[in-house]
Write a structure and sequence with these properties.
Blueprint (H helix, E strand, L loop, with lengths): L1 H17 L19 E7 L4 E9 L4 E6 L2 E6 L3 E9 L2 E8 L4 E6 L4 E5 L4 E5 L3 E9 L6
Antiparallel strand pairs: 1-2, 1-10, 2-8, 3-4, 5-6, 5-10, 6-7, 8-9
């Protein structure tokens, strides 16, 4: 009787713990497919530079933030480069526009940016970015 009880207990515990492992699937970065394919040079806070395509901020091809109390979004077509500065709990972004204007925004430091390099898919939070230089829009490949 005790053997049957122990065996039943082991079987129940096995079924309960079977689905707890991720099998490594959760660690893969899923890069969202942006509307346009922008090529950028990204430099992180460690001064590591990486060339990326399919760059987006949370899946969008614009930079969003606050200008005072106003929420704005600036399309990548209008941006030349962006410098990020982590100050206390905020991330300030100095946006250099193609028309020569400079706009300073406060951006969400936890907002993820995504891209594809020649060797890997990347995900990085805005607080970890030092500079983004937008090289331009890539032509779509016909498949």
């Amino acid at each position: 009787m005790k053997k049957g009880l122990y065996f039943s207990l082991v079987v129940i515990i096995s079924f309960c713990t079977l689905g707890m492992g991720g099998m490594g699937q959760g660690d893969q970065i899923a890069v969202p497919e942006p509307e346009e394919n922008y090529a950028v040079t990204l430099i992180d806070q460690s001064d590591v530079s990486i060339e990326l395509e399919k760059f987006s901020c949370d899946g969008l091809t614009c930079l969003t933030g606050k200008l005072g109390r106003v929420e704005i979004s600036i399309d990548f077509d209008k941006i030349n480069s962006v410098f990020f500065l982590l100050q206390d709990k905020d991330v300030n972004a100095k946006v250099n526009l193609k028309d020569g204007k400079v706009i300073e925004l406060v951006v969400d430091k936890k907002k993820p940016c995504y891209g594809v390099s020649s060797f890997a898919d990347i995900r990085i939070e805005m607080q970890d970015i030092k500079r983004i230089t937008i090289r331009g829009k890539m032509l779509k490949k016909v498949e």
